[in-house]
TrEMBL record:
It comes from the Bacteria. PROSITE patterns: PROKAR_LIPOPROTEIN. This is Small secreted protein. It comes from Streptomyces griseofuscus. Residues 190-204 have a biased composition (Low complexity). Residues 157-204 are annotated as: Disordered.
Length: 204
């Protein structure tokens, strides 16, 4: 069952990569300096949280063997869910504190959609952590059933991932995309996270 859970979690970094996945076409004179400053404040917050989310995915994959002890699975999955909840929350906070991108039509609403999506994901992972913590490791059958339920919810969470990805794409318009593309921190996430979403297709 935990293999299914690991497969579902492997798509966790999709939203983070979406923030930096589009390189864009640089305008001849370059984006507005104020927009570049905004992009830097957002992108600088991404790498550490992206690394935390990827580490959580890796931890679950490492303990995904059917022979892993229930106590080990519970402890690992619980910490992973907490790290993912914290990671998405931190990104939402960073984007919110950066404010709406300067000079972007409807920027405040677009930013609000991004923050809402990430906060929703954070809450969902926190809820899954609680479910994992409440599983009875002494009863193999109940534990396996509970873990299966968690994995099922993870596949359903893919809709939230997709919604968040779309909200990020909507925020990246015109010079916003160019400004983000200039940031070394976002370029780093884009290059390191290019293959992260691939295993998400195995979920379910």
């Amino acid at each position: 069952m935990n293999k299914k859970l690991a497969a579902a979690l492997s798509g966790g970094a999709v939203l983070v990569a979406a923030l930096s996945g589009c390189s864009g076409n640089s305008a001849p004179k370059g984006p507005d300096p104020k927009l570049v400053s905004w992009a830097k404040s957002v992108c600088d917050a991404v790498p550490a949280q992206d690394a935390k989310i990827k580490a959580a995915n890796a931890a679950i994959s490492t303990t995904a063997a059917d022979t892993a002890k229930p106590e080990t699975l519970q402890k690992t999955d619980s910490k992973a869910f907490q790290d993912m909840a914290d990671g998405y929350k931190a990104i939402a906070t960073a984007v919110n504190e950066a404010g709406a991108p300067p000079g972007v039509s409807g920027g405040a609403k677009r930013l609000g959609d991004v923050v809402k999506s990430f906060n929703s994901l954070s809450t969902s992972y926190a809820d899954l952590k609680k479910q994992v913590d409440d599983l009875d490791t002494k009863d193999q059958a109940k534990f396996a059933s509970g873990l299966h339920d968690v994995a099922t919810q993870m596949t359903e969470l893919e809709k939230k991932h997709q919604s968040g990805t779309e909200s990020l794409k909507a925020l990246q318009q015109g010079e916003v995309q160019d400004a983000i593309a200039q940031q070394p921190s976002c370029k780093k996430v884009a290059s390191s996270g290019a293959s992260s979403p691939s295993a998400a297709s195995t979920a379910g």
